[in-house]
Amino acid sequence: VQLQASGGGLVQTGGSLRLSCAASGRTFGMYAMEWFRQAPGKEREFVAAINWSGSRTLYSDSVKGRFTISRDNAKNTVYLQMNSLKPEDTAVYYCASAATMYGSREIRDIDYWGKGTLVTVSS
After folding, report:
1. Are 9 and 71 in contact (CB under 8 A)?
2. Which residues lie closer than 8 Å to 55 by C-beta, 6 or more apart?
3. What number of CA atoms fall less than 13 Å from residue 6's CA on the CB side?
4. How confident is the model at residue 122 (pLDDT cuts 50, 70, 90)?
5. How many whole angstroms separate alpha carbon 109 and alpha carbon 96?
6. DSSP bridge partners of 69
7. 31-89 pLDDT per residue, tens
8. Could you give the C-alpha distances from 79 to 5, 42, 58, 101, 122, in angstroms and in order?
9. What pLDDT score does 103 carry?
10. Residue 115 DSSP symbol
11. Any residues with CB less than 8 A from the CB of 82 and at least 6 apart, and which?
């Protein structure tokens, strides 16, 4: 299974970015997809999850109302639209494929990881 994330970059506070993650190697539409992030010196943390069909989403409290996760099963791609970005959103963002259809906030439920894309928000 390969997960290729893209779309990271440098943006000013209040700006927006859209991350994409293209998946291959498994039946994309059968599994939940998730985004995690890891800031320098910190542990990897959950950001958002979407179930297999796209009908259910989960968000961390820190991004709820600002970020939107979505998926296009025909394109084997998951997206993370990030609005109203803050300096504390600066991190490497990782796309992840869950071991289940429904997704969760737990790293232990992830069975495949992408390489990550860096998002830097300047103040």
Report:
1. no
2. none
3. 4
4. very high
5. 10
6. 80
7. 999 999 999 999 999 999 999 999 999 999 999 999 999 999 999 999 999 999 999 99
8. 9, 24, 14, 17, 22
9. 87
10. -
11. 16, 17, 18, 19, 63, 66, 67, 89, 119
Give the start-end residues of each E strand in the chain: 2-6, 9-12, 17-24, 33-38, 45-50, 57-59, 67-72, 77-82, 91-98, 110-113, 117-122
Q: How far apart are CA 63 and CA 105, in angstroms?
A: 13
CA distance 36 to 92: 8
Using alpha carbons only, how large is the chain's radius of gyration in Å? Answer: 13
Listed in sequence order, the residues at least 6 apart from 72 whose beta carbon sits closer than 8 Å to its beta carbon are: 78, 79
- Residue 26's pLDDT band (cuts 50, 70, 90): confident
Q: What is the distance between the alpha carbons of residues 95 and 92, in angstroms, rounded to a whole number? A: 10
CA angle 85, 89, 90 (to 5 degrees): 115
- Give mean pLDDT, residues 20-24: 96
Which pLDDT score, from 0 to 100, does residue 42 have? 97
Average pLDDT of the residues of the chain: 96
